[in-house]
Amino acid sequence: MYSRLFASGFAACALAAPTFAQTISAIPQLSVSHSILDIDDAGPAGPTSLLTLRTAGSPCSVGLANLSFSSSSVTTDTYDLYAARGRGLGWNGNGLALIEASGTFHSGDLRLDLSTPCTEIGFGLGDYAGSLILDFYRGANLLSTFTTSTFGSTPVQRFRMSGNSFDRVELRRVGADGFVITELLVETGVEVTEMPFFPGLHSTIDMDAVGAAGATSLAALNAAGTPMPANLRNVVLSANGQPLSVYDVNTTLGRALARNANNQIALVNPPSGVYQPFNARFDLARCSAFGLSIGDWQGAFALEFYDGSTLLETVITGNTSSASPRYFYMSGATFDRVDVHALDPNARWVIPAIYVQTGANDCCDAIPVFAGTSATYDTRGASSSQPPWPCGQGANDIWFRYLAPCSGNARFETCNLASFDTVMQIFTGPCSNLSTLACNDDSCALNGSRIDLAVEMGRAYLVRIGGFAGNTGAVALRITETPSGIGSFYGIGSSCGNVGLQASGTPALGGSVHYALTNVEGLPFLFLGLSQINFPLCSAGCSLRVLPDLASLQTGSLQAAIPCDPLLVGAVFFVQGVDYGGSAGCSAGAPAQLSTTQLILTTIG
User: Fold this and answer.
1) Fewest CB atoms within 10 Å of the CB: 88, 155, 270, 309?
2) 172, 261: one domain
3) Could you tell me which of 470, 476, 413 has the C-alpha nearest to residue 440?
4) Cis status of the peptide bond prior to 388, with omega within 30 of 0
5) Contacts of 14 (CB under 8 A, 6+ apart)
6) Number of folded domains in the chain?
7) 420 domain-assigned
8) Which domain holds residue 394?
9) Model confidence at 43, in pLDDT bands (50, 70, 90)?
10) Does an H or E element contain 223, and which?
């Protein structure tokens, strides 16, 4: 029996999970790019519109096509929002409305129509402590039905579809009670829009300024960028097999980027220059905007936007006009490559200028950041965004966006990470209606800024960093997360033999735990399970004390992160170590030489 137990225990416990089409599961947080429509921030109470809700979305784009309540009762309920927020979205008897805590609402069901097919969605309910039935549709086809857990214990819930995508969700009540919506978490659809201006901080690579005509280099192009070095990684111009043509660019610029007769990326001067038809590819640092001027051709072009090798969106331009700049902005995603080609394969064209994004110069282009230290950014050339700074005479700022993976505390700082005197401000809410949480000028060495905040799981925080009195330079942002829960480790029994087991870390939502064997003499194993047992291994008193239904690992050390799932609070699991070959425990042949550690009970806070 013992040998069979150890044979199964030493094997890996992970089994391949079967896959099913169109399965719905509850998830602790959304993993896709999404907007949070916080109803508190949607505007004043009263009748509302889809436009108002979309405008309230953060970071700036919401894939919400329509939202409607269907009244199924005339019962009027007093609004006593369960989530304890200022207002909620409900059915006021006549239409969709934002309802204050003292208002009334009618019970009804909700339908969400989405702009593009999605795989994840989330929402928070107020004044409702029951479950909902969710119907997921693709067009007119019902894909799957899912019954949620009780909203009273989890006022905000999130869901993922595996094996398909949906473009409509209908929420049906279990029972007659009505509800209001406090939050919507909507996946942002990918969309590219041509803009009349470049949306954000960028470099203009004007070919007149790059240098003398002739062969050029990526370094020369990047160096020509203004006001900051461009995020240009590579330029590839490919011939399309057409014969060489005489350069007769009809713009007034002195030279342009083309492919010359020697198959080089070159700056060509009119009217004596010679160039070939080509397709262009621009590899970039991750961007949400891009622009270029096209000369010597007035036909239409195709721009293909990629994330790595994945084509995100294709835009067909109208006819160009004499090297006029064309600017494009992507919402719902970012890209790192743009391919450009004329729709006419015989087109002869040149590129007088390129416009490359260089940073997050406003709220809508905020750079996503996570725990740890970000990349270093240069604020030279950054403009001063709205709203006005309330501290430190801040100016020339850039923006970051932090999505809290867990509720707890977070520290935001530039301490020892900036070459200039920084000012920091943190907001919540959509870009159209920001609420200031804190603003700080000097809190640490080298005139750095530091803000400590209590953060809420799934909520976005916008961090603006500028310079005192407009100072500029290089800066990075460090974020340190501290879980708010308090868990515990508790030792049960004692070791049998020389081997020991140490536990450390923070056993709370968003924290991590570490288990390490000490005094190992043979082959180390760690067993994790949900149930405590007492299986004697030999007469020396060594016992296996955990049923290893979570994992059996041939290792002497384990580091594990605890997910931010509120349902895990109060959960317990057991860990025990075995040194197969260790001394002072079971002797050889009885049934094997080994020693065991005490059992450690871990409680998640």
Assistant:
1) 309
2) no
3) 413
4) no
5) 551
6) 4
7) yes
8) 368-482
9) low
10) helix 218-223
**Lowest mean pLDDT across 9-23, 250-264, 272-286:** 9-23
Q: Is residue 2 part of a domain?
A: no
Summary mean pLDDT of the chain: 81
Question: Is 246 found in the same domain as 313?
Answer: yes
Highest mean pLDDT among 343-352, 381-390, 576-585: 576-585
110 and 90 fall within a common domain: yes
Q: Please report whether residue 13 resides in a domain.
A: no
| Domain boundary pick from 189, 213, 234 | 189
The whole-model pTM stands at 0.50
Q: What is the DSSP letter of 219?
A: H
Looking at the structure, do residues 456 and 537 belong to the same domain, yes or no? no
Same domain as 292, residue 179: no
In terms of Cα–Cα distance, which of 205, 239, 203 is closest to 220?
205
Nearest to 576 by CA among 519, 515, 535, 523: 515
Stretch (H or E) spanning 490: strand 488-492
Coil, strand, or helix at residue 8? helix
Q: Which two tokens stand for residue 66?
A: 């329509």
Q: Coil, strand or helix: which one is 3?
A: helix
Q: Residue 247: pLDDT band by 50, 70, 90 thresholds?
A: low
Question: What b/e sequence results for 183-214 when a residue is b if at least 16 CB atoms lie within 10 Å of its CB, and e otherwise?
Answer: bbbbbbbbbbeeeeebbbbbbbbbbeebeebe
> In this structure, what token pair is assigned to residue 27?
């998830």
102/40 Cα distance (integer angstroms) = 14
Residue 424: per-residue pLDDT: 97
Measured CA to CA, the distance from residue 402 to residue 404 in angstroms comes to 6
The type of residue at 344 is D
Euclidean distance between CA atoms 361 and 440, whole angstroms:
19
CA atoms within 13 A of residue 89's CA, in its CB half-sphere: 28
End-to-end CA distance of the chain: 37
Instruction: Please check whether residues 455 and 559 belong to one and the same domain.
Output: no
Residue spans of alpha helices (H) in 271-423 = none
550-587 tens-digit pLDDT:
999 999 999 998 988 778 889 999 999 999 999 999 99
Q: Please answer whether residues 329 and 196 qualify as being in contact, where contact means their C-beta atoms are separated by less than 8 angstroms.
A: no
Q: What tokens were used for 92?
A: 């006021």
Has residue 27 been placed in a domain?
A: yes
